[in-house]
């Protein structure tokens, strides 16, 4: 007997709400390190932060493979994503345009696509669910959209991952973009931002 899974709700008004969410995502990416609240209402599977749910439904489509990392690769998540976005599921991280990840179970960044010299925009965007966006400052971010510099906590992501991200700066314009999400809030880290780890 086949058990049918009814997907969780998504946007009530996909056109209007995706536009609202897209503006929030753009604003966050234009101002790295600044917390942006995604006000857009959306349904989501249990355990997924509303901000990241809105981001997925806004960004993912038929042409953007999504890789679901450990903790998110569930029947409920796969059904919800397919039903509301039509996005294909990537079998491997390096096939993904977008990846949904848990901060506590992050794979090495080198498993994702950085794009190519001819098409750097093909680098992956990682949507990382974190336990919080505040805490003890442990990093410094510098780059476009930041006046001088901004101090940031690790946000529950292992320091080894941040060291990998710091080393990626030499690959620019190749690289990866990150969204860190907790509840309705998110922080963006574009590939153009250089980061340094305190004590490194």
User: What about the largest sheet?
Assistant: 6 strands, mixed
Query: CATH homologous superfamily - what is it?
Result: Bacterial phosphonate metabolism protein PhnH
Parts with pLDDT < 50 across at least 5 consecutive residues: none
Oligomer: single chain
Compute the gyration radius: what is it? 16 Å
Relative helix content: 10-25%
Tell me the CATH topology.
Rossmann fold
Secondary-structure element sequence?
HEHEHEEEEHEEE
Can you count the helices? 4
Strand-pairing-aware structural class: alpha/beta
What is the average of the pLDDT values?
93
N- to C-terminal distance: 56 Å
Tell me the strand percentage band: 15-25%
CATH class: Alpha Beta
Count of distinct structural domains: 1
How are the strands of the biggest sheet laid out side by side?
1-8-7-4-3-2
CATH architecture: 3-Layer(aba) Sandwich
Total beta strands: 9
Name the overall outline: globular
């Amino acid at each position: 007997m086949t058990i049918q899974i009814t997907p969780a709700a998504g946007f009530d008004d996909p056109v209007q709400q995706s536009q609202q969410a897209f503006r929030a995502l753009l604003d966050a990416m234009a101002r790295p390190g600044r917390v942006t609240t995604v006000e857009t209402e959306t349904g989501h599977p249990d355990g997924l932060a509303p901000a990241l749910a809105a981001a997925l439904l806004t960004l993912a489509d038929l042409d953007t493979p999504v890789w679901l990392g450990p903790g998110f690769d569930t029947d409920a998540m796969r059904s919800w994503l397919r039903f509301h976005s039509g996005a294909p599921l990537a079998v491997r991280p390096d096939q993904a345009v977008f990846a949904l990840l848990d901060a506590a179970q992050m794979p090495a960044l080198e498993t994702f696509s950085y794009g190519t010299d001819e098409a750097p925009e093909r680098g992956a965007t990682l949507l990382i669910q974190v336990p919080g966006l505040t805490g003890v400052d442990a990093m410094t971010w510098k780059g476009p959209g930041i006046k001088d510099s901004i101090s940031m906590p690790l946000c529950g992501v292992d320091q080894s991952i941040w060291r990998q991200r710091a080393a990626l700066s030499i690959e620019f314009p190749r690289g990866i973009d990150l969204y860190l999400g907790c509840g309705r809030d998110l922080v963006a880290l574009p590939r153009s931002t250089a980061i340094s780890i305190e004590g490194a």
